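Q: Got a minute? One more chain.
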Amino acid sequence: MALSTLVVIIILAVNLIAALVVLFTAIVSPSGMNATRFTYGLFFLFCPVVAPTVCLFAFLLRRVFHSKPLDASDLSFSKERENLLLPPDRDTEMNYVPVRDALVLEDNSSLRRLLLDLLKNNALLTTSSVSLAVESADAETSHYAASAITDFLSEFRSVSQGMLFRLKQTPYDVTLNLNTLKYIYDVLCIHVMGDIEQRSYIYVEESVAENLYAHNMWYMTSEHYLWITDLLLEVDDYTAAEQWINRAKQCRPDELNTAKCAIHMYYKTQNRAELFRAIEEVKASSIAIDKEILDLIRVLESGGEQIA
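A: Always. Here it is, folded:
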């Protein structure tokens, strides 16, 4: 037998043994790498010389170019994204009209198009406008609006419950407390929930404010007191509203929103004597009067009452 033939036989025998070993390990080893090892075994079996050469070359490349440890400084977990400046869609934006006006029109196709364009914005104020379309005579428009509000409320319940749970675990977290207070208040202001759920979340909002008042009272602004007072007046809970008014006077005196708490209370309860007294106190103080108070003074004076 020639030497070259003997060498070929030895190479084939070694290759066959290697293929059988790889196939055997693929069968007896636990799941996870079985398919890979089985593929390598077949590769060795049907490509006697090429398969070992390719595997050896791949191993050497991996050792040369991938032997260095991973540099952790090259990794970035930042959530920042680049803002793309897209040109305005003039055709779409020129067709925007108030939903209240669009509902009067009988062009259902345009109304649906407008509603879908509004829903793309996914904005909180848009949800308030879309709620008007629920009562539309067009069934498809009403369905779009109802679906959008349902999805919005479902997300709100999930997010708010998560924030409330974390706040219960860490009641001293002032940032979480303030964010929860504002998040729930913004949704309450657009009145897209049912009466019972709206009332329930008003008291949830009061409990969030109570937590802030108990643990981080100095972070409560006069605007926060006004939020809670107006919400409690919405459900006619005058006792709780008066409690927050007294707290506002104690913690945030000589501020316009603090005065508004009392003015809103007396206006809602039709207590004219106290209402005029509260307005006179504002006029006599150094507090700058805004448009709301100025319009209220004009309305009261037009009714025949004079304010000093």
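A: The first helix runs from residue 3 to 28.
Q: Perfect, thanks.
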